[in-house]
Amino acid sequence: MYFLYNFFLPILLVLLSPFVVIKLLSDKVWREFFWQRFSINRSTLKTLDGKRPLWFHAASVGEVNASIKLLSEIRNRWPERRLLVSTFTPTGRKAALEKLNADVVIFLPLDLSFIVKSAIKKINPHMLILMETELWPNLIKGCGSGDIPVVIVNGRISDKSIRKYNKLKSLLKEVFQDVSLILTQSAESRERFVLLGAESEKVVTTGNIKFDMQVKKKPVEAVENWGGPIFIAGSTRDCEEEKVLSAYLKARETYTDLKLILAPRHLPRTEEVERTLSVMGNAYEKISQIKGPINSPVLLVDTLGELSSLYPYGDLVFVGGSLVPMGGQNMLEPALCEKPVLFGPHVENFREAARILMEGGGALMVENSDDLARKLVTLLEDPQLRLSMGIKAKASVEEHSGATEKTIDSLVKFLG
What we know:
Blueprint: H1 2-26, H2 28-33, H3 42-48, E1 54-57, H4 61-66, H5 68-77, E2 83-87, H6 90-99, E3 104-107, H7 113-123, E4 127-131, H8 137-144, E5 150-155, H9 159-166, H10 169-176, E6 181-184, H11 187-195, E7 203-205, H12 221-224, E8 230-236, H13 241-254, E9 259-264, H14 270-279, E10 284-286, E11 298-300, H15 307-310, E12 316-319, H16 332-336, E13 341-343, H17 351-359, E14 363-365, H18 369-381, H19 383-399, H20 403-415
Parallel strand pairs: 1-2, 1-4, 2-3, 4-5, 5-6, 6-7, 8-9, 8-12, 9-11, 10-11, 12-13, 13-14
Helix pairs in contact: 5-20, 7-8, 8-10, 13-18, 17-19
């Protein structure tokens, strides 16, 4: 199966090359760092000072944010270890540089056999830790066959992923032979890893480290003086902003002072979201351009890393990617800020978190835009209910914390 993977992967890359060219021409960040995906430069090696680092891979911003406490604990426990972090996306790289106390941050090398072998040889990692479900066959095989322990932490296989991975079961069974340990978020994910070919004794459920997230509050003066109540719609996706704005406008018919903070999941969509705001008649300002008081009812978040600082100012929070079939986004951050959390029916990627928050009384699921409008009005009418839900949301998260400690305990046998 590795032969077939290595045969078809270059063909796939050639087929995708027109899209890569378009991305390089249109995106300055991709152009700047594109070649890092092919080789490890000398300055990286110099920073490692000849020591074998712990190589930690987190694909994007969400995984980086979730790993903050874990990596902090690893650094405290093993301060002599160098830490190299790789990411797949430019925004993930930026978040890693800002939030993780890493010695080196790089882009993940392309999973072509000769590129990966060269990277492993140059980095010479003591251990490879992969966050969630970053299953890169050549990287895993290159480390595993070189007696470098490979551990998957916070492992998760969603409903969507299991259908895809079932088609690759023969390949994954070979891949898992080179994985030393898999630590999963839930018993369900554990079963799925085993069904895909992982050895049962290598797969352990330790819980979801996202329940151990720590929210760093940073004051945002303009929002502090904006007034309220404030409705925050965070991490919204394609075609979702229109639904959220429709609900907001209906709620605003009753609560004319209601403000909205709208934070699209992907910043390149900012212009698209601005067009939607204009078409629907919403006066708005962009957070990147705020220099004094906010004079519009809508604040559009067009900068990276602001959402966690804004959640504490919200009276109500809707978590996006859930009114459209995108699998949802992380709803634990607003819950930790003691906010009542709303989300749509499409939370397949965060099903356990959604269940825990709803059962604990800290969250509500909405069916559609009209239902979101109704629930906004219901919560706006009852400040005591909002307060109670917020307290319950935070308590639910804290009740299920502890996965980071279990993960650290499982890493001891590899790190000493």
